[in-house]
Write a structure and sequence with these properties.
The chain has 2 domains: about 130 residues, Bactericidal permeability-increasing protein, domain 1, CATH 3.15.10.20; about 130 residues, Alpha-D-Glucose-1,6-Bisphosphate, Chain A, domain 4. About 25% of the residues lie in helices and about 35% in strands. The protein is built from 6 helices and 13 strands. The protein has a 7-stranded antiparallel sheet with strand order 7-13-12-11-10-9-8. Strands 1, 2, 3, 4, 5 and 6 form a 6-stranded antiparallel sheet that branches. This is AHA1, activator of heat shock protein ATPase homolog 1a. One of its GO terms (molecular function) is ATPase activator activity. It holds the Pfam family Aha1_N.
Length: about 350
């Protein structure tokens, strides 16, 4: 556990030698709007519902206005938050037709219970009526309500501990290995293969490393132009990765997805035919990129994708191959029904 007032950015009041805020007597406040913005986006983009009519997924958070803060007075915590939000949803009917719409929440506030939230769902103006709208109202609205309740729960549990300092009569907590540190340690030890990390020292750049190559082939039940857009369109990428993504779908455009685990740059784009990119995984040696070519061959009702991957660090072939198969190809098929 970090020392009081040090290490954890959630702690907003330090225990000072001049006895400032002794016994939590004074009013202290922490702005947690930044954390809330990020967490709300992450939670909302994970909303997906399905039924006999098809499937719907929130694809983007277009509006997120408001603020959140935590206050401590005499050892009691007060949580204040107020948000207005709008999210876009993409639906695919059981016959494969796509529809777009929006979800609006106008009163996410500490003054309202979750059951009192005003959540409205609608289709975009240019979209014809579809049973998917009923699916979103019947199943999507309760799921959005549940997710927003999860945000409030995490807000209170994430920040409560550090807001109340011990009184002058209480002993200071002794340093110990916290559960959070244990989790970080176990994550770093998941792979038995030595990997580069951001700590304690960066991997050397400009050093030649041994690499390998591999090829993959996959067939998708969709047209080449639809599959092409799926890889370079930010909205589609956010849907099948179920996370926030940054994708600039043009030559020289950068991309970052899966919480920053994957990044790179599009080096050549031939619409509906070929995608070339520099691609890297976060744990690879600094500034090292593989070269990936995706060739699309339209075969009427289906499209064959041939992938060529060159320059993968030696020892990373299996994990890279598995990652592309699982987090790209299988995720696209499961999400869009390709």
């Amino acid at each position: 556990m970090a020392k009081w007032g040090e290490g954890d950015p959630r702690w907003i009041v330090e225990e000072r030698a001049d006895a400032t805020n002794v016994n939590n007597w004074h009013w202290t406040e922490r702005d947690v709007s930044g954390w809330s913005l990020q967490r709300l986006r992450q939670l909302l983009l994970g909303v997906r519902v399905a039924g006999p009519e098809g499937a719907c997924q929130l694809t983007d958070v277009n509006k997120l206005d408001g603020e959140a803060s935590i206050n401590n007075r005499k050892g009691k915590l007060f949580f204040f938050y107020e948000w207005q939000l709008r999210a876009s949803w993409l639906g695919t009917s059981s016959s494969g037709v796509k529809y777009r719409g929006t979800v609006d929440v106008s009163n996410l506030s500490d003054e309202n219970d979750m059951d009192d939230l005003d959540i409205s769902v609608s289709l975009c103006k240019d979209q014809p009526n579809t049973p998917l709208l009923d699916l979103m109202k019947r199943t999507g609205v309760p799921e959005v309500r549940r997710i927003l309740g999860e945000y409030v729960h995490q807000l209170k549990s994430e920040f409560s501990q550090g807001m109340i300092l011990p009184s002058t009569n209480e002993p200071k907590p002794q340093p110990e290995l916290t559960q959070k540190n244990q989790i970080k340690t176990s994550r770093a030890q998941i792979s038995s293969t030595p990997r580069c990390s951001s700590s304690p020292a960066p991997c050397p750049s400009g050093v030649r490393i041994p690499t390998c190559s591999f090829n993959l082939k996959e067939t998708f039940q969709t047209s080449a132009d639809e599959l092409y857009r799926t890889f370079i369109n930010q909205e589609f990428v956010q849907v099948f990765t179920r996370s926030v993504a940054l994708v600039d779908g043009c030559r020289g455009g950068r991309f970052q997805l899966l919480d920053g685990s994957v990044s790179g740059e599009f080096t050549q784009l031939v619409p509906d035919q070929r995608i070339e990119m520099r691609w890297r995984f976060r744990t690879w040696p600094s500034e090292h990129y593989a070269t990936i070519n995706l060739d699309l061959e339209d075969r009427g009702d289906e499209t064959e994708l041939r992938m060529e991957c060159r320059g993968v660090p030696a020892g990373e072939e299996d994990s890279t191959r598995e990652g592309w198969t699982r987090f790209y190809f299988q995720a696209i098929k499961q999400t869009f029904g390709y």
